[in-house]
Structure formats: C-alpha cells, structure tokens
Amino acid sequence: MHATQHATPSTERPRSAPAAKPAPPEDPREREAARIALEGTPLQRTAMAYRALRALIADPDDTKQVFYVGLLVNRGTYPTFLARFTTDDEGARLLRERPAIDRSTVDYDALRAMPASTLGGAYVRFLDANGLDPDLFQSPPGLPEVPSYIAQRMRQVHDLWHVLTGYDSDVAGEVALQAFTWGNTGMASAAAVTLAAGVRFSVTDPRIVRMAAAGYRDGRRAKFLAPIRIEDHFARELDELRAEWGIRAVR
Fold this sequence. Notes:
By secondary structure, this protein is mainly α. The chain has a domain at 79-245. It has twelve helices and no strands. It has helices at residues 28-39, 42-58, 64-73, 78-87, 89-97, 108-112, 119-130, 145-165, 171-185, 188-201, 207-221, 238-245. The longest helix is centred in the middle third of the chain and has 21 residues, at 145-165. It comes from Sandaracinus amylolyticus. Pfam families: Coq4.
C-alpha cells in the first residue's frame, strides 16, 4: 500500500513563465561512456570506470565523473534495480509520464516561498546555499529510453536525498549519501564511489568511514526511494516524510 500523494500544483511552472535555460551541451565523454557500457568488453568498462574514479578522487567537484562511473559499472546491478522500480506502482507511473525536476517543470520561486521545514522549501534553500543548478542533470546520451530516463531521474533526485538525509554537500556528506544510495538501491556505482572515495578521504577525515557505514545502514532500512514521485511531496513537512519513509536524518 502506498502513501496518499500530496500534490502541489502551485509549484508547477506557470505556462507564462520564462522558459528554462537551454540544456547543457552534450558531453562527448559521457556518450563514449554510454557506448562502452553497452558495447564494450568488461576490461574496457573496468578501465574507463577506474579512470573516472581516479579523476573524481583527484577533484571531488568533478561531478561528471560520477555520471561516467554510473554508466560503466551498473550493468550487473541494473536489472535488479529496474525490476524493483517497475513493479512499484509509483515507479511504473514515473516511466509512463517521465516527469523532470528542473526549471522547465518546477517553479523554484514558489518553493522559496515555502517554509524551510518543508521538503520543497528545504530543497530550494539547499540549491541556493550551494550554488547548484537543477538544470545540470540531463539524460545521458546514447542509452535506450528507459535507462536514460532513470539515469536522469536518479541524478535529479540526488539533491533532494541530501535534504531528506541531512547530509552536507562536502566530501564527507557526499560519500555518506553515496553509501545511503548504495544501501537503498543496491547500485554498483554508488558502492564504487563510496569505497574508492571513502578509502582515499578517510586518511584526512576519519569521520568518513563511520558516516559511510551509517549511511549504508540507513539506506538499507529506508523505503526504496527511487520510484517515489518526490516532487508531489514538496509542500509536506520534512519530519513527516522522514518518518513515513523510514529515513534517519543526521541533522
């Protein structure tokens, strides 16, 4: 049984509002990662994923490397994830309707008018405080329609999961959220980023191992979040959603 949806039509982008910013240009390296993911040998996938992980560890702000890893290493875990996603009523609806979470569909000024204690209000404040662009997360080129949409969707909910879990956008918080994502979705890319970054950065920040372990446990215990049409819950209180979805917030 699924919880009652709380629609928030006032947060939908008005028809007369200015158009969203043009989508970022296609990344040729991401297209190549998609090609290798679909057509490459296991050795080619492993080698390219290894290079992406090394680049991410060298520059944790290079978000695109996470995208490449996601394309390259999820081949083995994706079928199980997809089965869970599509057998959920909300997941099936997402795949039928394919909503986006960006400026083309969400009125971010309306979210700014919401209390900070709501999901929508906390989400837009998180974006503003960290200088994050919700239009950054486009569907990866070169994939079939369903995995392409799911990849985009998982990218677009990432910052909302930051808000729900309470993890910061610093390195420790990002590693902990990857661990939470690993526990919640079982995706190999989240495991790879958690382990690689956790080992590397725990040398300078001993909190990371503890935070990652707790994040993984919390992800396992929480409701499977990926199929939730989370934007339907923008007007709801964070504490209410956390209790409903079994999420332990760290702050």
